[in-house]
Amino acid sequence: MSEMVRTCRPSARVGVATLLNLAGALLAAGLAGVSPVVLPARAATPVLRVQMVLSPTQINLMQQEIIPRFEQANKVKVELEPVDWSNRMQKIMVQTAAGLPPDVFMNGAEHIYELVRAQLVLDITDRLASWQDKRDFIPGAFGSSTWGGRNYGVPLLAAPRMWWYHYDLFEEAGLDPKRPPDDWEELLAAARKLTRTRGNEVLQQGYSVERLTRNEPFGNMQEFVPYLWQAGGELIDEELRPGFTSSAAIKALRFMLDLRNAVLPAGYTWRPTSNYAFYEKKAAIFLFSGLVGSEIARKDPRQLDRIGIFVPRDKERVTPVFSDWVAIHRQSQQKELAWKFIQTLTAPETLMKLNLQMGLPSPRYSTVAAIVKENPALRFSYQALEFARRYPIFPEADRLTRLWATAYQRILKGEQSPENAMASAAEEWNNVLKAYR
Predict the structure, then answer these.
(1) Residue range of the domain that includes 297
(2) Which residue of 14, 60, 343, 424 has the lowest C-beta tally within 10 Å?
(3) What is the largest CA-CA distance in the chain?
């Protein structure tokens, strides 16, 4: 899932089938004479349409610095359309049907399958093969924009998940902060030892259970996927067959239940905090993105020396990486100009500025030293990238994630066993996915 503006994005995305039906309806309306689309005459100065999900400070940077410089160098007019993750896909489909698609557009970690299937994104494999700058990018960052061995975009960031921990809380519990948990057994033991209670109230979570327990579909699945991988399982294969009924998946789910029960036993209560408990030192370990370090540095930079990260293992030591990326629309009339803009947008100095605005890691090797110097909290993200794999890609990501999370919530409430709940979710996934096989 995308990191440029949020870490766990609540989504309102519509599935490809629905969007394609919408596009077809729009085209049919034009053909029926309701209001035929009239394309504007080509302007004397070429116009490049760019659609991106950006923060207000990033929009200002684009409009005041990046775009004017590109316009002057290329004698072109750039029209920037800021969108958000809930409306961008709908806008792309409507604009495509109207004959005015964006030339360059921004995508999140889970979008590639739907874009390729809908024929909205240009294959740039050959362009990348002859682009010498490609070797400067961390290879894993391209995973989210790759499908079927072909490349469709250039990454803007590479944001892995990692297990954060507080040195102070480890020391108070008699644990060595220089030796964080290595495997699941040590992680569970540490979670138990780090949990503090008074009466039937949990005062300190040994492991942050918020994303484990809240009814947050994307948070629930983002917690599950790394443990599934570490147990040797896969969420879904390339034939679009769900893998979360496997023995590895059930093992991962039972481990997640063990973590929850170790930190929040039956009959105990937890008083919610205004933010994630880790930020207030009311949770000792937290599975989350690099934004944790940036948030802590914002409050008190000195605390960066009192936190650490690790990636545990069961069979494997692995964690997801999320990458936002930019692509060229397949129907763009300005493909070469669009490619030049992407090269400008992903140049080292531009990526430095864009990512420092959000406290997220740049995907280019040549920027690592400089960006860590500017934001020391980002060093933790680069440490975790050694173990990173792209987050799973599958169609109807919003819908299917919610279906899975509903089954997961039934497990948490004790309404179904992990085996039965996952079997039910797999059946629902198969009913959706059969249209894509």
Answers:
(1) 162-321+394-433
(2) 60
(3) 76
